[in-house]
């Protein structure tokens, strides 16, 4: 695929790395906000190739990881009901609740289905008028617009047996929370390009100014990440702190106004609990009053959830950048994707999962040890 | 806005076991391996089963036979490039071929769901017959059962097969040694993406056809160059990654693959990028991975490329003494990463 090859070109990558090496003079700590960026970095070994002074801190931008346990437990309870068809994106199925996951609900006879679009769930609702169809609407600004559109469509088409369990989160309040933490080490951000392709860049200049941090919008292919790092390091070395768009092929400064209008119509901003973090003010969306009929939490009255989260995992420190995943004693021993201690290990965008899948240190040869590219 | 102290961030979830069967137990990954190792192998015992190969090498009256069985529960029954019928024939023929054997006889078990249309059954049977004739194998015995409506997916198939292992051929992971060359017979990921595209109604711009094919002839042409191949594996469920991981573990050698050398058709790469999947983990039904002594590698590669089913064969890596039991990929950018056995099924990502 031409598109992929262009943005994974080794020669161009070498040039960008050379430029970064020539620019950097002292240590800098950059946070990539999105778990998708983390996986690109680890999967392609970008962190191995950067000069030692450039440290990448993995941010909390994994929608699966930050979905609160209480919401997962609510999803599990709804999904287990015999009259319900529960639809979800694939990577939520393996995330453990207090005592089970969606796979296990399915193993016990629950009708849990993987869909690729929320509109597929709506279609299932039309095809099964005598059953309740619930879609698990989680994620950042990226997945929120199609979910909002689906609820909008459900109302327009008058589909009474469709509802959505909503737990959407917003990136800018999370950046604010990170920067105001006393233990914060972050000096610059690689902002998530797909979030900005929806919301634009308007929310970032105030944050860059207030916290004196460069914010560079990047994509998800290896060259996108390297270009973002190059621009970030250049700003840091010059003492600048502006918002820079290194992903112009997908991001316009105003974002996608139609998607924003859909969000404004269907959702309203709310305080939201982030798993492992706690409640961040104004950091989430829920269905607005006008669409409350389609809110699965109300429809199914899922109350009295008691969550159980034994605090045996250091993913909080991983999320802060205080330790790398492999520095946790449980990493790869008591905590693996097979038996995760934290959602960061089980999610396909989690930092611990990235390290476990691609970087089990001590056994992985360094680039110098491996033979040259064939 | 109030500040949030992230020093207390934590993200714990409980440790659990799997008290019931989940789909991942049939996914060809770590969960499948645990099911076999923890339940089936102890229950059945036996040294032959403990080898855990795609087919068992057995000796009967002084004759070395390969013996294998597999079940097929694919949905939809008909897909671009094939159907459950030719899949069931080719799958078992290939399992035998991975022992170096030319399949001779197959058995065939049909589990039909009440209500399935007769032309569907006929279509599946016709495809099986055609695939068997093409592979030079005879369906010698069979069985039919019918389950109540709602208790099946139309048609489930089981095939078992036997074939003769030629003298001098001994294909086992334990024969792999550091310095072996790893060859894949062609483009990977076609079958899995073809199935996904029709099962989920996804369109990727071009129709992707399954690579479903019988590999007995290709293996014969490789063995004609040298009987001293070390191991062959068809990378079905779990894909190329699972096949490599299983061989690394069983042989206690390390494997280094060059990602750029792995043949991935652009349409497969495109589809996988959209779904957040890794082509190395996507199923194949007409490809093999060969571990070949270095001195024979070029000749074997030439023989493979001269065969229609090996025209896209490529050297993708080698075995090493470092990191025994582990597969490592060298990325196009020059970094390295571990290639791990998948847990269960691959799951499409949220975004």
From TrEMBL, chain A:
Coiled coil: none annotated. It comes from Streptomyces platensis. Keywords: Iron, Metal-binding. This is Hydrogenase formation protein HypD. It comes from the Bacteria. Belongs to the HypD family. The gene is hypD. One of its GO terms (biological process) is protein maturation. GO terms for molecular function: 4 iron, 4 sulfur cluster binding; carbon monoxide binding; iron ion binding. The keyword Iron applies. It holds the Pfam family HypD.
Automatic annotation (TrEMBL), chain B:
Residues 54-165 form the PurM-like N-terminal domain. Pfam families: AIRS (PF00586), AIRS_C (PF02769). SUPFAM superfamilies: PurM C-terminal domain-like, PurM N-terminal domain-like. InterPro entries: HypE (IPR011854), PurM-like_C_dom (IPR010918), PurM-like_C_sf (IPR036676), PurM-like_N (IPR016188), PurM-like_N_sf (IPR036921). One of its GO terms (biological process) is protein maturation. Gene3D superfamilies: PurM-like C-terminal domain, PurM-like, N-terminal domain. It comes from the Bacteria. Coiled coil: none annotated. Residues 178-323 form the PurM-like C-terminal domain. Transmembrane segments: none annotated. Belongs to the HypE family. This is Hydrogenase expression/formation protein HypE. It comes from Streptomyces platensis. The lineage of its organism: Bacteria, Bacillati, Actinomycetota, Actinomycetes, Kitasatosporales.
């Amino acid at each position: 695929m031409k598109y992929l090859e262009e943005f994974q070109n080794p020669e161009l990558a070498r040039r960008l790395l050379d430029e970064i090496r020539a620019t950097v003079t002292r240590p800098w700590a950059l946070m990539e906000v999105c778990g998708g960026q983390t996986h690109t970095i680890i999967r392609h070994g970008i962190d191995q190739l950067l000069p030692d002074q450039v440290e990448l801190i993995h941010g909390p931008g994994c929608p699966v990881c930050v979905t609160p346990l209480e919401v997962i437990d609510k999803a599990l309870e709804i999904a287990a009901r015999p009259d319900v068809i529960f639809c979800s994106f694939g990577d939520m199925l393996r995330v453990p609740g207090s005592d089970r996951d969606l796979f296990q609900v399915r193993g016990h006879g629950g009708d849990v289905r993987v869909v690729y679009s929320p509109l597929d769930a709506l279609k299932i609702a039309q095809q099964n008028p005598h059953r309740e169809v619930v879609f698990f609407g989680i994620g950042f600004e990226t997945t929120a617009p199609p979910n909002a559109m689906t609820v909008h469509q459900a109302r327009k088409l008058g589909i009474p047996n469709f509802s959505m369990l909503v737990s959407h989160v917003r990136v800018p309040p999370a950046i604010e929370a990170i920067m105001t933490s006393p233990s914060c080490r972050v000096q610059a951000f690689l902002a998530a390009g797909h979030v900005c392709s929806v919301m634009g860049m308007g929310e970032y200049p105030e944050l860059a100014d207030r916290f004196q941090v460069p914010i560079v919008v990047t994509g998800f292919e290896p060259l996108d990440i390297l270009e973002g790092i190059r621009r970030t390091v250049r700003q840091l070395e010059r003492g600048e702190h502006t918002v820079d768009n290194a992903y112009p092929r997908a991001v316009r400064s105003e974002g996608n106004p139609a998607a924003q209008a859909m969000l404004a119509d269907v959702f309203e901003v709310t305080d939201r609990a982030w798993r492992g973090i706690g409640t961040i003010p104004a950091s989430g969306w829920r269905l607005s009053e006008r669409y409350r009929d389609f809110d699965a939490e109300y429809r199914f009255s899922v109350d009295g959830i008691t969550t159980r989260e034994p605090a045996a995992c250091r993913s909080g420190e991983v999320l802060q950048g205080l330790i790398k995943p492999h520095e946790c004693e449980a990493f790869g021993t008591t905590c693996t994707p097979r038996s995760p201690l934290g959602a960061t290990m089980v999610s396909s965008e989690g930092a611990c999962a990235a390290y476990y899948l691609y970087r089990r240190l001590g056994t992985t040869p360094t680039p110098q040890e491996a033979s040259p590219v064939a | 806005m109030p500040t949030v102290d992230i020093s207390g961030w934590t993200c714990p979830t409980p440790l659990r076991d799997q008290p019931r069967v989940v789909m991942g137990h049939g996914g060809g990954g770590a969960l499948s391996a645990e099911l076999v190792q923890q339940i089936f192998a102890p229950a059945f015992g036996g040294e032959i089963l403990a080898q855990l190969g795609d087919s068992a090498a057995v000796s009967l009256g002084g004759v070395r036979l390969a013996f294998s069985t597999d079940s097929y529960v694919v949905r939809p029954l008909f897909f671009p490039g094939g159907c459950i019928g030719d899949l069931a024939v080719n799958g078992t023929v290939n399992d035998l071929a991975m022992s170096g054997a030319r399949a001779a006889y197959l058995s065939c078990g049909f589990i039909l769901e009440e209500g399935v249309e007769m032309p569907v059954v006929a279509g599946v049977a016709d495809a099986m017959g055609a695939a068997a004739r093409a592979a030079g194998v005879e369906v010698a015995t069979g069985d039919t059962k019918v389950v109540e409506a709602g208790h099946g997916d139309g048609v489930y198939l089981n095939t078992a097969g036997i074939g003769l292992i030629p003298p001098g051929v001994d294909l086992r992971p334990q024969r792999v040694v550091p310095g072996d060359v790893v060859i894949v017979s062609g483009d990977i990921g076609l079958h899995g993406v073809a199935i996904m595209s029709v099962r989920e109604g996804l369109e990727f711009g071009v129709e992707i056809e399954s690579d479903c094919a019988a590999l007995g002839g290709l293996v014969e042409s490789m063995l004609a160059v040298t009987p001293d191949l070390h191991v062959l594996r068809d990378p079905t469920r779990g894909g190329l990654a699972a096949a490599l991981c299983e061989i690394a573990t069983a042989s206690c050698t390390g494997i280094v693959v060059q990602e750029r050398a792995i043949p991935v058709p652009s349409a497969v790469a495109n589809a996988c990028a959209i779904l957040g999947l890794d082509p190395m983990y996507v199923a194949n039904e007409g490809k093999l991975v060969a571990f070949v002594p270095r001195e024979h590698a070029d000749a074997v590669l030439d023989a493979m490329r001269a065969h229609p089913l090996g025209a896209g064969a490529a050297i993708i890596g080698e075995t090493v003494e470092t990191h025994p039991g582990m597969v490592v990929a060298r990325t196009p950018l020059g970094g390295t990463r571990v290639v791990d056995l998948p847990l269960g099924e691959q799951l499409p990502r949220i975004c």
